[in-house]
Amino acid sequence: MWNPPPEALKALPEDRDWSGPSDQYGDPKTLYEMVRKSVDMWGADTVQCTYIPGEGLERVPITRGQFHDNIQALAAGMRAAGVKEDDRVLQIVDTSPQFAMIFYAANMLGAAASAVYTNMKMKETIHCYNLATPSILFVASGDILANFSAAKGDAAWPAAGAVLLDNEMPDEIPEGLKVQTWMDFIQSGRAAEPVNDPCMDPHKLASLIFTSGTSGFPKAVMLSNWNVLHNVLAIQGRAPLWPGRRTACFLPFAHSLAQAGDMSAMIYFGVEVHYVSDLLNLVNEVGEIRPHIMLCVPRVLNRFHSRILAGIEEGSGIKKKLAKSALATAKKRTLAAPTEMVAVPPKGLKDKILTKLAITKIRERLGGELDLMISGGAPLDPEIALFINCLGITVLEGYGLSETAPLVSLNGWQDDYASMSGTVGRVIPGVEVLIDQDAWDDPDSEDGEILVRGPNVMLGYWNNTEETNEVIMDDGHRTFRTGDLGRLIDGFVKITGRVKEQFKLQNGKYVAPSPLEEQLKLSPLIEQASVDGRGKVGTYVIIQPNENAMMAALASEGMQTSANFEDTCAMENVNSWMLQKLSDEVMTPQNWKGYEKPRTIIIDHREWTTEDVLTPKMSVKRRVLEERFADRIAQIP
Prior knowledge:
alpha/beta
């Protein structure tokens, strides 16, 4: 499927010793050493990444040598400021080259790197700060620092102070805090004594990853160097990642998927990392970057799917006919192929002509060279995966958690590219998955809780022995209870829900809401959905609609509405119409059992954001919706 060049790193034996780095295979011992080795392997003058430093500015390249030099300067500056081995370094910074440099500089010193999203609720940011007790703080801007200062209360400032990445000193500096700009800090590091003795302990704490906090305040996942390096080395040579390839990077580095993927594996394998500066302008920037690979989440693919279909419908008659014919032909060809989730080249003259006239035009919106998307973080609907395949792009779904650094399984990594649609692949080398059916008491189900063993399992939760003991089994193997429900099918892992999210109806039937919610979000009328029904006769669903799509559909069908969107969402006839529409379009018998189909719908006129209903990973905080609609939920039988 892919033809690697001679310089591409080769796959390591599946049956090797994965308990730690091996001199036999030249494994890096730490994440910092991984970066240093990448400079040696691919050359100091080669481009490692590009980014746009500010609005209206041109994209700037950074070579591997420059990236490494900045890491060394940052590490020297941190140590001169008083940061020591085993300290914590906290960032409130968006995905950027600077984020990665700070991370690796902390790792060079043997300090633990930690980070929070810039759009996280301030009370959660303060919680993470108090949990990490950092020695130094890196902040994206003076405005964020001011907001943080106003909210932090009596918590002490870090002894080494704060560094502002936007290079603008604030008008007012918080009392008791030393503040420097990024450029000043880099220069002070260049003038300081260099760090000639980098930490080389593979099992030392490398990072704290804060969980999404769907059920309360975030916990801090402790990942060692080897936890993450195992993920990187396990997929070495098993995916088309090598020099000359490009990736468009936009996932948050505060999350483990992006840290292990775009921030680590891509660097080590020689892939050029091109940072997207504006998520609202994602398609245009990707068109300029012309990536070959993209790490993504289903929400991005769902929106991509919706936008393409909407664009086809808006096209002229001949263009619409050509696009639909090309996609139908590609779908037939893809479904007939022996391997699922893998793009299949056009066959025959008609197929090739249709592809050139229609599908190639669609692909050009993403630069024209994209051939692989790796999806994680949430379930990917098989229909979406099939649609992406029809565009000539292989899309491989994987599975993991912050607690597993994150990768557990992935489709397509084996020599025969074995993949199974609707699953998250086979476990990667060095990892073992078990299914504990005792954790799930539905006698009609083959499902059980997914347990993971391997060198990717976290060290535990920072300063939280009680919750660590709840998920790490004392069985001599450090087995991790994922909390996910699933099953094994011919070695492929299939996720069916979350143990804690499952609920039982009054008739004794169990419902797993997550797959149903993903189905609902396939409708162009829906932005977000939450299915529930605990202790009820039947299920109900709360949705955040796509306002424009919903109002247009209501108008086209002559439905009575109000001039006020909130009032429209509350109208009984609109609720009945929406429920019937979803039942006809997405609640198909193949994916919904009769008792799973909701009897009641609640339409929320408000947008669900990370300020209220959504976590930074875009998971729904069900407890927030329960509180918001407590009165209406109480009336549901």
